[in-house]
Amino acid sequence: MGYDRTVCVHADFARTVAAARQALAARGFGVLTEIDVTATLKAKLGREMEDYLILGACNPRLAERALDADRGIGLLLPCNVVIRTEGSQTVVQALDPAAMVTPTGLDIMTPVADEATHRLDNALAQLAKELNG
Question: 77 lies in which domain range?
Fold first, then answer.
Protein backbone atom coordinates (compact mmCIF):
# COMPACT_ATOMS: atom_id res chain seq x y z
CA MET A 1 0.00 0.00 0.00
CA GLY A 2 1.26 3.46 -0.88
CA TYR A 3 1.24 6.11 1.77
CA ASP A 4 0.76 9.21 -0.35
CA ARG A 5 -1.66 11.01 -2.65
CA THR A 6 0.40 12.74 -5.35
CA VAL A 7 -0.01 15.02 -8.35
CA CYS A 8 2.68 16.39 -10.64
CA VAL A 9 2.10 19.77 -12.24
CA HIS A 10 3.81 21.77 -14.94
CA ALA A 11 3.99 25.05 -13.08
CA ASP A 12 6.75 26.77 -11.18
CA PHE A 13 7.21 26.24 -7.48
CA ALA A 14 5.84 29.59 -6.27
CA ARG A 15 2.70 29.34 -8.41
CA THR A 16 2.14 25.77 -7.23
CA VAL A 17 2.48 26.75 -3.56
CA ALA A 18 -0.07 29.56 -3.97
CA ALA A 19 -2.50 27.31 -5.88
CA ALA A 20 -2.08 24.49 -3.32
CA ARG A 21 -2.93 26.84 -0.47
CA GLN A 22 -6.09 27.94 -2.30
CA ALA A 23 -7.13 24.39 -3.20
CA LEU A 24 -6.64 23.20 0.38
CA ALA A 25 -8.55 26.19 1.80
CA ALA A 26 -11.44 25.54 -0.60
CA ARG A 27 -11.71 22.03 0.92
CA GLY A 28 -11.65 23.21 4.54
CA PHE A 29 -7.94 22.80 5.28
CA GLY A 30 -6.10 25.64 6.98
CA VAL A 31 -2.33 25.87 6.85
CA LEU A 32 -1.12 25.98 10.46
CA THR A 33 2.62 25.54 9.91
CA GLU A 34 5.15 25.90 7.15
CA ILE A 35 8.61 24.37 7.02
CA ASP A 36 10.95 25.59 4.30
CA VAL A 37 13.20 22.52 4.19
CA THR A 38 15.43 24.08 1.53
CA ALA A 39 16.17 27.15 3.63
CA THR A 40 16.56 25.14 6.83
CA LEU A 41 19.12 22.74 5.36
CA LYS A 42 21.00 25.65 3.82
CA ALA A 43 21.10 27.58 7.10
CA LYS A 44 21.84 24.66 9.41
CA LEU A 45 24.01 22.41 7.24
CA GLY A 46 25.13 24.56 4.33
CA ARG A 47 23.41 22.08 2.01
CA GLU A 48 21.86 23.10 -1.29
CA MET A 49 18.76 21.26 -2.47
CA GLU A 50 15.74 21.74 -4.70
CA ASP A 51 12.70 23.71 -3.53
CA TYR A 52 11.01 21.68 -0.80
CA LEU A 53 8.23 23.02 1.43
CA ILE A 54 6.08 21.23 4.00
CA LEU A 55 2.68 22.76 4.76
CA GLY A 56 1.00 21.60 7.95
CA ALA A 57 -2.61 21.59 6.74
CA CYS A 58 -5.49 20.72 9.04
CA ASN A 59 -9.23 20.36 8.71
CA PRO A 60 -10.44 21.18 12.25
CA ARG A 61 -13.69 19.16 12.05
CA LEU A 62 -11.92 16.03 10.84
CA ALA A 63 -9.14 16.44 13.40
CA GLU A 64 -11.74 16.82 16.16
CA ARG A 65 -13.51 13.61 15.12
CA ALA A 66 -10.27 11.66 14.98
CA LEU A 67 -9.02 13.05 18.32
CA ASP A 68 -12.33 12.25 20.01
CA ALA A 69 -11.85 8.62 18.96
CA ASP A 70 -8.19 8.40 19.94
CA ARG A 71 -6.13 11.15 21.57
CA GLY A 72 -2.91 9.60 20.26
CA ILE A 73 -4.07 9.89 16.65
CA GLY A 74 -2.24 13.20 16.37
CA LEU A 75 0.81 11.11 15.55
CA LEU A 76 -0.90 9.87 12.39
CA LEU A 77 -3.09 12.76 11.26
CA PRO A 78 -2.65 13.39 7.53
CA CYS A 79 -1.55 16.99 8.00
CA ASN A 80 1.64 17.31 5.97
CA VAL A 81 1.46 18.45 2.38
CA VAL A 82 4.81 18.45 0.60
CA ILE A 83 5.48 20.68 -2.37
CA ARG A 84 8.79 20.07 -4.12
CA THR A 85 10.47 20.48 -7.45
CA GLU A 86 11.49 17.41 -9.37
CA GLY A 87 13.19 18.13 -12.66
CA SER A 88 10.96 20.36 -14.76
CA GLN A 89 7.82 19.76 -12.75
CA THR A 90 6.50 20.44 -9.29
CA VAL A 91 5.22 17.57 -7.14
CA VAL A 92 2.48 17.97 -4.53
CA GLN A 93 2.07 15.12 -2.05
CA ALA A 94 -0.18 14.50 0.92
CA LEU A 95 -0.19 11.60 3.33
CA ASP A 96 -2.91 9.12 2.41
CA PRO A 97 -5.46 9.44 5.24
CA ALA A 98 -6.00 5.66 5.15
CA ALA A 99 -2.57 5.43 6.79
CA MET A 100 -4.16 6.41 10.11
CA VAL A 101 -6.69 3.57 10.09
CA THR A 102 -4.64 0.38 9.98
CA PRO A 103 -2.18 1.12 12.81
CA THR A 104 -4.95 2.10 15.23
CA GLY A 105 -7.25 -0.83 14.48
CA LEU A 106 -10.17 1.52 15.17
CA ASP A 107 -13.03 1.16 12.68
CA ILE A 108 -14.32 4.56 13.82
CA MET A 109 -11.36 6.12 11.98
CA THR A 110 -12.51 4.82 8.59
CA PRO A 111 -15.21 7.45 7.92
CA VAL A 112 -12.83 10.22 9.02
CA ALA A 113 -10.11 8.88 6.71
CA ASP A 114 -12.61 8.47 3.87
CA GLU A 115 -13.78 12.08 4.16
CA ALA A 116 -10.23 13.39 4.45
CA THR A 117 -9.26 11.35 1.37
CA HIS A 118 -12.19 12.76 -0.57
CA ARG A 119 -11.29 16.34 0.37
CA LEU A 120 -7.57 15.91 -0.33
CA ASP A 121 -8.20 14.16 -3.64
CA ASN A 122 -10.52 16.97 -4.70
CA ALA A 123 -7.91 19.58 -3.74
CA LEU A 124 -5.20 17.74 -5.66
CA ALA A 125 -7.46 17.27 -8.69
CA GLN A 126 -8.33 20.97 -8.68
CA LEU A 127 -4.65 21.81 -8.48
CA ALA A 128 -3.75 19.51 -11.38
CA LYS A 129 -6.60 20.85 -13.51
CA GLU A 130 -5.70 24.47 -12.81
CA LEU A 131 -1.96 24.11 -13.35
CA ASN A 132 -1.86 21.49 -16.10
CA GLY A 133 -4.68 22.94 -18.14
Answer: 4-132
